[in-house]
C-alpha cells in the first residue's frame, strides 16, 4: 500500500474517515507516509471544552501547546460550552463536531449552550501556535471576546469565525453595539432566541430586526441565521416586543450601495415571512449574492408578491420554505405561487414543506427546476439537536404532504438528474395505496 499514488491514499483516508475515526487514527500510525496523509483527517478538527477557571481545563489547553505534530494539522477549532444540566459524553461531542462539518450552514441547529467566564489567555496562546487554521467556532452563549478575535485577525486573516450568541433584546445587550461584530474575520453569526411554548411569548413573526441591525453594523458578514429554541423561564418573546417598539422604523432610506453581500440567510420555518419583512431584507442586503436561503413560512400573498416583483436572486442554488395558503386564499393562489417560483433562478436543492396543493408541484415548481434539481425534499427529518421546530411545524397541520403514486410518477418525468429524494407516502401495511407508491418510486 505504501506504493499507491497520493491521490489514491487520500481516497482511502476519506472513506475510512466516514466509517471510523479510530480506524483513521490507526492508519495514521502505520508509518510516516500514512501519517502525512491521514494525520490531517485525524487532527483536522480540535474540540476544546471550556470550563470556568478549572485547573484541569487550563492544564489540558496548556498541554496542547506542546503537541507540535498535532497543531500542524489543525484547520478547525471548536470552543464548546454545553449546558451543564445535561449529561455530556465524548461520543456526543464527536457527533457534534461531525454534524458541524457535514451539515449545510443553513440547516445547522445547535444544542443547548452554556456560558464561559474564565480566562482566555491559554486559548489565545493556542491560536497563535496554529499554522493551518481555516475555521473557528465559538459554541458558547457569551459573546466572543474582542481580544481573541483581534489575535485571529492578526495571525489568521483568512480564518472564518462562526459565533452563536444568545439574544435577549435588552438594550444593554444590543447585538449591534458589540465590539466583536466589527472583527474582519467574523464570517457567520447564528443568533439564538428563546420562547415559552406554553405561554404567550411565542414568536409568530420573525424576530429578525436584530439580525438586520447587526448586518448594518457588520456588512462583511457572509452567513446569518436565526434559531428559536424553547426555554421556560427566560423566553425572549415579550422582551422582543418591547425592544421592537423602542427601535426607529425601517424604511426605504436604509438602501445604500454598501449593502451586505450575504451568501447564506436562514430564518426559522416556524415563523412567518411577510412582504414587508422581505423588502426590509432587500434594503439591508444585496440578495443577488445569496446561494442558500431558508425563508421560513410563506403564508401571505404579500410575501410571494414581493419576491416576484423584486426578483432579487441571481446566484441562489438552495431554497427551503414552508408553504401554507391563507384561510381566505383566492382561486388565483396557485398562479401567485407559480409566479414566485418563476422569479427564482434554477435550483440544485429544494426543500418544500407545508400544506400546499400537491397538483401545483409538477407545473408550478418542477417545470422550472426539474432539469437542474439534484436534491428534492418534500419532507424534512427532525433536526439532530432540536425536535421543537418539528413539533411547532406539526401544529400548523402536517409538516409535509403525503404523495400518491400518480404524483410521484409525474415528478420522475420532470427530474431526470435527481439523486436525493425525501418524500411522504401513505403507510397502510400492504394496501394498494402504499404498494403503488413504492412501485412508482422504484
UniProtKB/TrEMBL annotation:
Q: Look up the domain of life of the source.
A: Eukaryota
Give residue spans, biased composition: Polar residues. 227-241
- Region Disordered, residue ranges: 227-257
Q: What is the name of this protein? A: F-box domain-containing protein
**Organism this protein belongs to:** Aspergillus indologenus CBS 114.80
Amino acid at each position: 500500500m505504501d506504493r499507491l499514488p497520493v491521490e489514491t491514499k487520500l481516497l482511502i483516508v476519506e472513506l475510512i474517515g466516514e466509517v471510523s475515526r479510530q480506524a483513521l487514527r490507526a492508519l495514521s500510525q502505520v508509518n510516516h507516509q500514512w501519517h502525512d496523509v491521514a494525520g490531517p483527517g485525524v487532527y483536522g478538527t480540535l474540540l476544546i471544552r471550556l470550563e470556568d477557571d478549572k485547573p484541569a481545563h487550563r492544564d489540558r489547553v496548556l498541554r496542547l501547546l506542546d503537541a507540535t505534530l498535532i497543531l500542524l494539522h489543525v484547520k478547525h477549532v471548536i470552543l464548546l460550552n454545553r449546558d451543564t444540566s445535561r449529561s455530556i459524553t465524548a461520543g456526543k461531542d464527536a457527533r457534534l463536531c461531525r454534524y458541524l462539518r457535514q451539515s449545510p450552514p443553513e440547516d445547522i441547529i445547535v444544542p443547548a449552550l452554556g456560558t464561559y467566564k474564565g480566562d482566555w489567555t491559554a486559548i489565545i496562546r493556542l491560536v497563535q501556535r496554529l499554522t493551518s487554521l481555516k475555521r473557528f467556532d465559538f459554541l458558547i452563549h457569551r459573546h466572543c471576546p474582542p481580544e481573541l478575535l483581534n489575535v485571529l485577525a492578526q495571525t489568521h486573516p483568512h480564518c472564518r469565525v462562526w459565533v452563536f450568541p444568545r439574544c435577549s433584546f435588552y438594550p444593554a445587550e444590543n447585538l449591534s453595539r458589540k465590539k466583536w461584530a466589527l472583527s474582519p474575520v467574523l464570517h457567520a453569526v447564528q443568533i439564538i432566541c428563546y420562547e415559552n411554548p406554553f405561554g404567550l411569548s411565542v414568536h409568530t413573526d420573525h424576530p429578525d430586526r436584530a439580525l438586520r441591525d447587526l448586518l448594518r453594523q457588520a456588512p462583511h458578514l457572509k452567513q446569518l441565521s436565526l434559531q428559536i429554541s424553547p426555554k421556560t423561564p427566560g423566553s425572549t418573546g415579550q422582551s422582543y416586543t418591547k425592544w421592537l417598539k423602542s427601535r426607529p422604523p425601517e424604511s426605504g432610506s436604509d438602501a445604500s450601495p454598501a449593502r451586505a453581500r450575504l451568501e447564506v440567510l436562514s430564518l426559522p420555518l416556524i415563523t412567518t415571512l411577510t412582504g414587508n419583512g422581505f423588502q426590509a431584507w432587500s434594503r439591508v442586503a444585496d440578495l443577488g449574492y445569496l446561494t442558500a436561503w431558508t425563508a421560513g413560512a410563506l403564508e401571505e400573498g404579500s410575501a410571494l408578491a414581493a419576491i416576484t416583483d423584486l426578483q432579487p436572486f441571481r446566484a441562489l442554488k438552495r431554497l427551503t420554505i414552508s408553504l401554507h395558503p391563507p384561510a381566505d386564499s383566492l382561486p388565483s393562489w396557485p398562479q401567485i405561487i407559480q409566479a414566485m417560483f418563476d422569479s427564482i433562478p434554477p435550483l440544485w436543492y429544494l426543500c418544500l414543506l407545508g400544506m400546499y396543493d400537491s397538483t401545483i408541484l409538477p407545473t408550478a415548481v418542477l417545470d422550472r427546476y426539474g432539469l437542474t434539481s439534484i436534491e428534492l425534499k418534500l419532507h424534512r427529518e427532525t433536526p439532530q439537536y432540536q425536535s421543537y421546530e418539528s413539533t411547532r411545524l406539526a401544529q400548523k397541520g402536517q409538516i409535509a404532504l403525503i404523495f400518491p403514486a400518480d404524483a410521484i410518477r409525474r415528478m420522475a418525468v420532470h427530474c431526470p438528474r435527481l439523486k436525493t429524494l425525501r418524500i411522504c407516502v401513505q403507510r397502510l401495511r400492504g394496501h394498494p395505496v402504499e404498494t403503488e407508491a413504492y412501485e412508482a418510486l422504484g
